[in-house]
Nitrogen permease regulator 3
Amino acid sequence: MSCVNDENFLAVALVINRSRDGPAFVFHYPSHVPALTNGHEKSDVIDVEDILFEQIAPPSGAENGPEPAEDGGVRDDHYTTEAGVQVVPWEHVAGFPARDLAYILTPARPYHKKIFQLSLDPLLCISYPIHVPENGKWKKTKKANKEVDDNIAPDEPNPPPTSKTDSNPEKTKDGKRDESDEDKRSSMTMFNLVFFLDPKRHEAKELVDSLFSNIVKKVNKAYQYSQQHSEFVWKESKRILAAKEKAREDKKKMSALWKELIQNSSLAASMCEVYNAISQNRIATLHLDTVDGILTPSVQIPVPFFVADLPAEDDERHRGLWLTTSNAFLSQDALEEPGFLDRNFALLLMDDEKKIIAELQNDRDPTTLSMIEFVRLAKPTVSFYQVGQSNILTLDQVRKYAQHFIFWRRAIAIPPLHPRDVYIVSPNCDLERLPQDAQDWQRAFPLAPPLSTFLAELSVLPRPYKHISPSKAHRPLYLRMLAWLMRGGWVTQLCTFAYVVVWPEILYEVDYEMEAEELGIATSSVDGGDATSIHTTQENADAQSTHSSLASPTQPQHPPQPPHQQQQQQQQQQTPPDAHALSQSPSSHGPKPSTTTTLSAAEHSAEMARLERIAIKAHREAADKATAHARKTSPVPTPNPSLNDAPHLAGLTPHIILDPKKAAGKESRYLAAIARRFRDDKLRSGWQLLCKYFDGRCALERIALQEDMKRKEAWALLTGMREYLLLTRHW
């Protein structure tokens, strides 16, 4: 995922459109957005349709860009040009007139709730425009017995008059200006929170996708909710625009005005929070002060907490992260399988448990007590499913709270830690952190060996973690030490993965059976390793072969006949109906030899001869195949097919089945042939159950969790199947 920072994320701005006054550039943050030069790399995006540029208001000839400050930024104060025109610093953003930006950043209704992407080379703007509903009302009105004008939402663009006397929208009955009516006429019809980016060419698409899905879309939706329930965006926008207009008249410095706006407007403050938090890779928590109360939505770009492969040497961002394929190898089928994640993952808190509980106890939220229980129960050695089996929390609560802590970056999901699993020093550990982490380790575990010594012990020889512990009584402490190491990315689990390997003995057996079936030879395979018995006669093979070459797929099968009978029968079947009738019925005009009839008969005779030659050839080939098959060595199962080097297996190489779940044709027969080799019924049924995990992606250590089996039982089955498994180990 591309990293968002203050170099590629330049600013955030709010643009609105009003029914009477048109687009307005409400607010942007940070206050000073410098103009980009063409020296920047051009973003690899498509410019928006030309029709949008036609909406740009003609620039005023007297309006020029703000004069740069001495430090390279934009001037903070107002100044007057030689022509006597006042230049206001906030009326230019990124080198463009704010008024013009307002027009081109006001997309038409077809862009409602869709990604809007605009390239102003090298500036890139992305947003998620929100338009007023088709009825012109943001807020739904409540049904009540009131006057017509009372039922009109205050932001309706063109409210209809209720009578002839009040048809003038500027005046009421007593001749005074109707402020609410004026408010309706100049109400907001669209708002658009726009993100200004300056991405490098290679990161443009990834940066846009990441920002849009995680931030742009969600913040605009939060604003939409606030607008629909309390007209929050419209009311705050009016306040900001009025403050800017007054500051323009007073020639107030931009820094002073922006400070006041952020302090007095929760809308401006929320935009400030979005920019500061997201550009610094933090969680942005908005505080929208609406008439219905304070709303506090939170958004973030999820930070990676693991890597599936070693990052590049210059990739500082991913160094020190947990190294594992347990998340990268999750298939869509696994994710959609009920209970898969619950059984395969546990919660690892990224802070001290006591510290998190103390923070929760200061929160008065009604769910605090159950969340505290979740923190106490959700150990890194216990799966979510096991936590949900308690009488204290339901599985739904466990999922909800786990998602909460993971979202707030207070925890990560890991496979449950177990003393029988193997853990090694992570190749991705950050050795630069060793001095500081060694001190933290010593404070956390005063009686433990030094961190460097403990890591060296893990590196000696990969073995179950329980062998590191001095005794069984020390295991709880050593598991806490292991959790600490996992939290810091110092260790990772060494897992075992498997593929099904089909040895030549099995390949030969399946090919032999398929060839026998093709020849129509009766075969029978006896379970438990008995040799395959074959009962056949040469006549049966010949008959089957001859019939296969002559019989039509739509005709009933009959025993083969001598060649002369076949020719006579086929001649009767294939003689054209009109020719047959002609040869059988007398002619009233006497016999008149016909050239056409004579040629047809000759052609028919030639065709019959050709078919007879084909039948004889097929007969001979079938006989040869049957003879060759009879001379082959009958397949004989051995206890260890991997060691079978019999001469008849020469030239055959083992076959690897990459995914048993997708096995078809020969591969499905290979799996069935292997199943027949197991004498033990438990192994035979276990093979059918566990075969789906032998795809090189599912760690064998997780099988017991997923199938709700005892670890000893699972490993006993796997040990009995090892002859037909190709094993590999990695993180």
Residues 595-631 form the longest helix (37 residues). The CA atoms of residues 307 and 323 lie 5 Å apart. The mean pLDDT is 79.
